[in-house]
Amino acid sequence: MLARSNTGTLGPPARPSASYAQPPRNPGFDESLRLPPLQTQLPTSPTQGSDSSGGPSASAPTGLGIVVRDLRESQARSIEAMVMSIPYINKLKVLGKISPPLGPPGPSSPAVETRGPVLALEGRSAALVKAVSVVIEKSLASSGECAVRTWSANTPPADTGSDDAEMVDGQSPEMSKSRTTSVSSGSSSSNPFGKYLQTIMEWHGKSDDIIKHVTTKPTGEQSDNAVDKTAASSQLPVALITDGFSLTLSDKFASSVPIADSYAPVDHWQWMATLWRGIIGPDLVIYVRSATEDEVNTLGGVDFKSAGIMIVRVNESKGLDEKTERRLGFEVMEWVRAGTFKEGFGRE
Fold this sequence. Notes:
By secondary structure, this protein is α/β, with parallel strands linked by helices. It has helices at 68-84, 88-98, 126-142, 173-188, 192-214, 226-233, 246-256, 265-274, 293-299, 322-338, and strands at 118-123, 146-151, 236-241, 284-290, 302-306, 309-314.
């Protein structure tokens, strides 16, 4: 091995200091020309960047030493933040055009027996929405004027099939339905978009149930008392959606379904919202929002933003107080008695 001479050679380069000092800037330097730092591109689809495709795993570092999984989580948080930054009033107006309330029957449509209202609870806090829905249901039922029926995410659609059993591909309807449900559940359990489509399909079925309820006079079939039956027939059918409807679910799935194309988060949310087309919209949206004690005292616990949007402000740390409960029950019943949702349906 050749010995290295100490004469006429350069020493090793000096190590950079711990705190990197930027070179002095020219007074005439245009800051707009400075390039942003390098960023690592995320895989745009679930199949990219997986172990089976030869790419980095979900937790493998990229060329810049950044963990892909962390970047995905960061991207998901960013999408959710942008989706939730859209004012809820604007979203409700969009959904009101996509999924409007039940309109009056046309000239060639069959007449309806009655027209009751559809009320939907919306909000970001599931606990607050649940608390408010309990108060509203109690107020409607205790008035004696309403035949209240509730719907939620867990309410199964009514079976609209015929009573006669038919064979489908050599199987009974029950077996065919069970097989379809099993396949659907399996395919959507790990795919949030598939789960959203399944949710939309379920609400299409529930929508038919809701329409039937609010356009059919109560009969009091469960009572043997003639007086009770007469009283029931004079009640107004009310549909109450208790745990979030089109706004809550559009927000939820727009935040959880990854954007794998060029859609901006706002367009991504609006596309999710358009899937509610064909489903009955609420006559009254009751939006529950968390508020400080000062906001509740200054703005009030219950407020109408428009004829079809009621805002309920609740201090999350204290919950619904007795004053707000009474005001809420009063305002809901006054809105129901006003009957603006009956316009175009004629007199009963």
